[in-house]
Amino acid sequence: MHTFGFERERVRDAEVVTAKTLSHLLGLKDQAVTETNLARCIAQVVATPTAPGVAGRRKQLQYFSSAFAYEERSCPTEVPRCPDDRMGLTIEGDRRVIPMLGSDACAKELVALIQPISRRPSYVCCLTQVADVDASSLLDRPSAMSTSSRHRSTSPSRYRNRSHFSEFIFDDAFAVAVGIDISLRPLSEVYDEGVYWQSLRAMSAGYHLYQEIFCSQPPLFLTSIHPIYDSLGSSITSARIGVAILSALALPGAYLIGRALAGPAAGIAAVSLLVVTPMYLEQSHLLRAGGPATGLLFLTIGAAFMWSEHPTGRRGMTSAILSAVTLALGVLIKLLDVLAVVPIVLLVLARIWHIRHEPAPKIWVSLWPIAAAIVAAATTTLIVLAPFAGSANALIDQVITFHLAAKKMMIASRSENVHTLGEFFYANRVLVAVAAISVLVAVMRRNWRIVPLLAWFLASVILLLVQVPLWSRHAIVLISPMIAIVVLGLRDLPTIPLRRPISWEQSGALLMGVFALGIVVLSLRQDYQHYRTLVVWGPNSADQWMVQVAADLGRVTGPGQWIITDEQFVAALANRDTAPSLVDTSVTRISSGYLTSEELIQVAANPRVHAVVFGTTHFTLEPVAGFHPWLAEHFRLLRTYDKGIELWTR
Fold this sequence. Notes:
about 10% strand; three-stranded antiparallel β-sheet; five-stranded mixed β-sheet; 27 helices; 10 strands; alpha+beta
């Protein structure tokens, strides 16, 4: 099997194939081979039955990969891009390759004909053979190439080092931003943080998820955070650090997405866009599943697009398995990560369509990574769920049936979904506008990669529109497809210093680069205002009531006594536990009928329950309205705080 590829060399002079030669070869009229049509011409040479050297030899032709391959990382300037959606581009290693039919004789004809071609006199593309035939016998190397000019070209290792250094800088910026939030916000306005903090405390006390502990999320979120929580001191800070660690997986994931779609520079751009996104920074330090799920979502899609670019070999197998494993882990953290299936399925279908006419052995080689990915996803799921085999029914009830019941009981809130999404799009209006421009640019370029990205985004919007209840935090699933769409517009980004003339594709990439920079600058301004307010003014004074209630709870209860509350963060702040079955007393659980007055009374009758705190309006909802009268008969009101907050003790 012969493999041909373009290898970049620097020469002083370059020739352009004349219109006469091209006309003889392809039957075209007065059209010279240029950077923009080079790949199309070469593909047409081999694909046309009447082309010289091909006609009459169809039965004798062998498959070989030919023409138009190059190392992206080592290219100091742009080279012509293949119309891969029409020519059937495949990726092997770091090279872009068009699979073609040809015999040895035809290959030699093609190599001998296509000499170094370029508009720019400094850079050309040369055909070389890297199989069992000596390349020097097929192509005369340009004699004008000098050693000094070879050293002036950008080396892959240097480019990789720059990329890694840039990513390291953004990682540090992310760590600093999250560290400021964690250190300066000891209290919380987020109800879910109290729920998950009490769940972690119950796990540390020996109770089990879906048995004694009510848990409406898939199991991996709490089980992955718990070891970090225990090892770093069992505090809210240690739990948030665990969230930040898992959320940071989005950074390499964003880089993989950008690199696969448009090169290393786009990878750095994707990371920079993500790091300054306010919603991502917020979710990355709160004790919620949104941040870790987003991290795995980015990594899943990044690995999937890397597989699409390099679908075979060790690299393809690694990317496919990584994408499958992170997809399974993401769904087992938060069900919304199932949206990643949409672009992945489209990429797999595109790959199957591309190899449909190849020989059976080569088709099986291409299908092996897909099969391995399916096995890896299934194995990962079984490993994670194995400890919960004894409580499978309870797991399904609390994770799936519970949400279906909530959707049925809270259907009236669906009308608010459009408003919630509208607020998200308005808050991220610059990112939305640039993503829309990028879609137009990709369509004009006929870049097929916009199809899975656009399908991913639209599927996310549709799912959020029908989601009941929909909270503003759920909209974070829209961040990843929008960033991916933006960096797709950076494809064909020219290198610096610019060499004129540049193509319209490069001009479009430059324009998208300016827009991406604008997003970063505006987001940085918003982030600066947030952290400046946090540093100057400190925690929200409205949350200081938590400190007062926590201090009173610490005085009137002992370490082994339970507390019932609809504000679980206060009990954890007092270093006290809630009853394991009542770690979650949210509006969703109460409205769905999964928590009633009878259940509250049954738990409150337990002698271990020594105090009850009304911290929100949850216990005033109709399904649990009978709890307060019962409490007045069996407990005494110790203290009333502002906003109707009450502390009851036995």
